[in-house]
């Protein structure tokens, strides 16, 4: 599928509908456990046959991101979100970086937490997850913002353990990485990702793909920056997750 095709509003037989999205005061359905030495949010059936590794955005464990994980888990997936920042995520007040101090702080955060750092941890995380959840035969990876870059690097690298990938409002979109991605890949962009980079990335993908821009949504609308009290954002948050579930149902 290409960016010229609209997202499917229906769902395949293999895929559930997105549960009703909670605007405020969301109650997490999962628990925290330790996997490969990292605190990890875990949700969904522990005897699932399919697993999803979630790479959060720079703001870490936000309710909107955890709700997204629970939505993915509702389709009989075991979903894991490791705490790569080990309790020190980026304060959301630093974004957008509208002044020099915020720019400096944000730059320092990225320097301390480059996507490559998470990429190096993923083989051990997946090894531990496979040992803990032997019923899971296939794994997908999904990443938001900073996490989207992690997805690009992992799925284009040697020994990629994932059957399918998804990048949601990804940061630092690089068409060169797309050339090395051989697994099915979904990319959902906001109005704030560079359109030219997204188009070049899509053109460079050689495997099954669905690339779509949610033209009235901000960077972060499916994770920490989702204002779910805004009806339009809530609607597109839900449609975004339905698109992910449909793609994973087809390829995972």
Automatic annotation (TrEMBL):
Species per Swiss-Prot/TrEMBL record: Plectosphaerella cucumerina
Cell membrane as UniProt keyword: no
Key words of the record: Hydrolase
Name under which the protein is recorded: Dienelactone hydrolase family protein
SUPFAM superfamilies: alpha/beta-Hydrolases
Record-linked Pfam families: DLH
Molecular function in Gene Ontology: hydrolase activity
UniProt xrefs under InterPro entries: AB_hydrolase_fold (IPR029058), Dienelactn_hydro (IPR002925)
Hydrolase among keywords: yes
Residue ranges of every copy of the Dienelactone hydrolase domain listed in the record: 39-251
């Amino acid at each position: 599928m290409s960016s010229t095709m609209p997202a499917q509003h229906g769902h395949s037989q293999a895929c559930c509908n997105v549960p009703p999205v909670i605007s405020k005061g969301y109650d997490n359905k999962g628990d925290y456990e330790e996997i490969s030495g990292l605190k990890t949010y875990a949700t969904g059936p522990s005897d699932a046959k399919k697993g999803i590794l979630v790479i959060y955005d720079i703001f870490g464990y936000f309710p909107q991101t955890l709700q997204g994980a629970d939505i993915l888990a509702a389709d009989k997936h075991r979903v894991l979100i490791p705490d790569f920042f080990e309790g020190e995520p980026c304060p959301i007040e630093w974004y957008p970086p509208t002044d020099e101090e915020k720019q400096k702080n944000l730059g320092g955060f990225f320097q301390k937490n480059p996507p490559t750092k998470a990429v190096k941890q993923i083989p051990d995380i997946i090894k531990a997850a496979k040992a803990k959840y032997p019923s899971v035969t296939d794994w997908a990876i999904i990443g938001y913002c900073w996490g989207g870059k992690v997805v690009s690097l992992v799925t284009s690298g040697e020994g990629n353990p994932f059957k399918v990938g998804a990048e949601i409002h990804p940061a630092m979109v690089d068409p060169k990485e797309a050339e090395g991605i051989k697994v099915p890949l979904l990319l959902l962009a906001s109005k704030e990702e560079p359109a030219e980079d997204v188009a070049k990335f899509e053109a460079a993908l050689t495997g099954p793909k669905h690339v779509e821009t949610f033209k009235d949504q901000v960077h972060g609308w499916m994770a920490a920056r989702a204002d779910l009290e805004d009806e339009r954002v809530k609607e597109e948050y839900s449609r975004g997750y339905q698109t992910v579930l449909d793609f994973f149902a087809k390829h995972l």
